[in-house]
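wait is this the right file?? whatever heres the structure
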């Protein structure tokens, strides 16, 4: 058969195409196209991958529950699982086994709390009582009416606290393909960011402790000891001093006025102090001094104004007091270790035997300096502060003196404060200890008795005191600690 030149060219082209096609099939059979897959747990995929921006990566993420997309045709893409990413929860207390093919990227940490029913009816703290009903729970699942306990003196969130669970994204590499492996770890480092990394390094960790004590009356020698002795604070506050100074926010009720006036009111007892004692009280650890008590007008409105001036001079935080009603209704706001606090104090004490009526005489008006009194308006303001995202603390000077149980009106008002958003209600005025109770997730301390109050010897129950410390994890109460104390003359010490 003879081929002309034209036919020869055609045959040659066809033959070349056939060889190329055959070569392609052979190559595809021997060297299939590869799709590198990284299998991701469905939870991590939904949280980090699904809505992420489309990035040019040498692999694709595939949810664990999704089947491979490879088909059986000659032109199929061969799927190769090069790595997996799973969620793992590890208890910090236990040593972790290492695998050279695995890399952990911590995502978050949550704390495990040993906790007990908060039986405040028993005297003292007794947290190590072997008869306690001890349980363990997640920090976000503390049962209502229970309180957490420290572990070897450490609280959840502190550096050496051992009961925590770290949740991590664990990457396990099956096929070491350098380009893919490097790209995967680069993506993971950028994506799996530990939650606490967003918190400033300067911000302390651990619970925020709010402490409060009973009535502080520094006349009758206490203020002279503080101001005239090098160890004056230790002499007056004894072994309670570290508790006051090491708490994050400490509240005290200053039972009397700061004035040089001698024009005292006609009352059974009137108390006044030197303004120079105020910085010593702050050095003792007090961050807020309450003045809405039945001795705020012991030297009339002028003595009360002297107290306002002295507080301003020494930058003493307080609230519920002012030159008029508008000022007296303002909350004190501060942020402690990231926790926003709104603190207010008010009067709710009954008329004294001497006839002194705090509601009529000492309540602030548009034209008179004075204190905030219990009211429906206060309940509304408490609700507003809670809705604004604050932890709300209300200090109330109320109840009956030398009564060991709260009165009906006392309970109703304190519970109403909690119903409207108060996280803690600290009570004073009875001069003796009254119960501490949970109320719908809030804490009510009806009375902490006297704290520094020389001259109470011989009066039943009047020398029994306590320091109450409430620890917040986030904006929820986790720890409640009661430290019984005893007054002896001008000194208070832990029992």
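ok assuming it is, sequence goes like this
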């Amino acid at each position: 058969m003879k081929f002309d030149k034209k036919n020869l060219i055609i045959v040659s082209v066809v033959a070349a195409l056939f060889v190329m096609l055959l070569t392609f099939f052979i190559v595809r059979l021997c060297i299939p196209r590869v799709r590198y897959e990284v299998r991701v747990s469905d939870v991590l995929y939904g949280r980090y991958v699904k809505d992420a921006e489309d990035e040019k990566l040498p692999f694709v993420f595939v949810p664990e529950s999704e089947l491979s997309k490879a088909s059986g045709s000659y032109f199929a893409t061969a799927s190769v699982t090069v790595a997996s990413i799973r969620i793992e929860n590890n208890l910090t207390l236990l040593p972790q086994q290492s695998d050279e093919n695995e890399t952990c990227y911590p995502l978050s940490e949550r704390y495990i709390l040993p906790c007990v029913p908060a039986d405040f009816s028993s005297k003292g703290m007794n947290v190590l009582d072997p008869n306690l009903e001890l349980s363990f729970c997640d920090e976000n699942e503390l049962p209502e009416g229970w309180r957490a306990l420290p572990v070897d003196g450490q609280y959840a969130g502190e550096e050496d606290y051992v009961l925590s669970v770290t949740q991590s994204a664990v990457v396990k590499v099956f096929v070491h393909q350098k380009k893919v492996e490097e790209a995967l770890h680069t993506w993971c480092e950028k994506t799996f960011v530990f939650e606490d990394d967003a918190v400033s390094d300067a911000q302390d960790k651990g619970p925020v402790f709010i402490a409060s004590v009973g009535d502080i009356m520094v006349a009758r020698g206490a203020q002279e000891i503080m101001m005239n002795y090098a160890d004056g604070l230790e002499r007056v506050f004894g072994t309670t001093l570290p508790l006051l100074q090491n708490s994050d926010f400490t509240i005290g009720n200053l039972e009397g006025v700061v004035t040089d006036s001698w024009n005292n009111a006609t009352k059974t007892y009137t108390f006044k102090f030197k303004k120079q004692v105020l910085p010593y009280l702050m050095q003792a650890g007090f961050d807020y001094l309450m003045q809405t008590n039945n001795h705020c007008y012991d030297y009339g409105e002028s003595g009360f104004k002297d107290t306002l001036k002295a507080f301003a001079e020494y930058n003493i935080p307080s609230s519920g007091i002012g030159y008029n009603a508008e000022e007296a209704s303002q909350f004190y706001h501060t942020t402690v270790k990231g926790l926003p606090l709104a603190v207010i104090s008010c009067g709710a004490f009954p008329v004294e035997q001497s006839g002194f009526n705090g509601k009529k005489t000492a309540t602030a008006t548009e034209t008179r300096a004075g204190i905030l009194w219990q009211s429906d308006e206060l309940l509304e303001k408490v609700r507003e502060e809670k809705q604004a995202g604050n932890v709300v603390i209300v200090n109330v000077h109320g109840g009956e003196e030398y009564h060991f149980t709260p009165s009906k009106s006392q309970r109703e008002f304190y519970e109403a404060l909690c119903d409207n958003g108060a996280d803690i209600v600290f009570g004073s005025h009875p001069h003796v200890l009254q119960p501490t109770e949970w109320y719908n997730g809030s804490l009510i301390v009806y009375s902490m008795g006297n704290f520094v109050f020389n001259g109470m010897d011989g009066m039943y129950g009047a020398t029994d005191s306590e320091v109450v410390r409430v620890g917040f994890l986030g904006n929820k109460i986790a720890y409640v600690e009661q430290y019984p104390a005893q007054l002896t003359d001008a000194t208070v010490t832990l029992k």
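Residues 222 and 490 are 5 Å apart (CA to CA). so i think its the right one actually
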